[in-house]
Design brief:
With 219 residues, this protein is mainly alpha-helical. Helix 2 runs antiparallel to helix 3, helix 4 runs antiparallel to helix 5 and helix 6 runs antiparallel to helix 7. The two termini are 20 Å apart.
Length: 219
């Protein structure tokens, strides 16, 4: 049930894609820009530079869609995001993994700040947590246990940063603690080599995130 809710919420965020350059008020274009940005991390890791470049072009279109109707207060943040995007596209064209990662993280940071400034009801960092969860699953399938450990650490850090907003949305201490407990249990399962339990815990975390993102969307 939670997974279906998760899919519905994300589909609602991403379903309507405006024509390039068309003004669109509200945070939807920034959500799409963030989703495209998160996807680029996977392409950098896989060395799929052509797809990464295609996604970076889509990010530019989403930023322009937002900019056409953005408030004046967003001007500085937009300028910084555009600069970061230009840097990312430059590094992708050079096929440079390390510098592309740095540019990716810089753009992600700018988009999170922009999205937060719009008053978007769901903590934007939860979308990053969902991405961390996806990358962790991919790492499990590749038996890259070092990467799984890294993603679990990232997941916990990003989730903790979203906690204040989640509390504002009405989540109880027990509900937020449940996610942190499952992250800790997943880390234990990884250390002990219990892969089926690790995957099961990642599934449970996805269900919890679906519920929490749903709460934000309903706010």
């Amino acid at each position: 049930m939670y997974r279906a809710l998760f899919t519905i919420v994300l589909a609602g965020l991403l379903l309507v894609s405006p024509r390039p350059g068309r003004a669109e008020s509200g945070p939807a274009p920034l959500v799409r820009a963030l989703q495209e940005t998160l996807a680029i991390e996977e392409q950098i890791e896989a060395g799929d530079w052509l797809l990464a470049e295609k996604q970076s072009a889509a990010i530019g279109r989403h930023l322009e869609s937002y900019a056409a109707a953005a408030p004046q207060s967003a001007a500085t943040g937009l300028a910084e995001a555009r600069q970061r995007l230009a840097k990312l596209r430059q590094e992708l064209a050079r096929r440079q993994t390390a510098t592309s990662y740095r540019a990716y993280f810089g753009l992600r940071k700018d988009l999170l700040e922009l999205l937060t400034s719009t008053g978007y009801p769901t903590p934007p960092t939860l979308l990053v947590v969902r991405h961390d969860l996806k990358i962790a699953r991919l790492a499990v399938s590749r038996e890259n246990w070092q990467e799984v450990s890294h993603e679990l650490n990232e997941l916990e850090f990003n989730y903790r940063s979203a906690l204040p907003k989640l509390v504002e949305l009405g989540l109880s201490q027990q509900q937020t603690a449940d996610a942190l407990v499952k992250i800790a249990l997943a880390r234990d399962a990884l250390t002990e080599g219990r892969t089926p339990q690790l995957l099961s815990l990642l599934d449970e975390l996805e269900s919890l995130l679906a519920d929490q993102i749903g709460r934000g969307g309903e706010d």
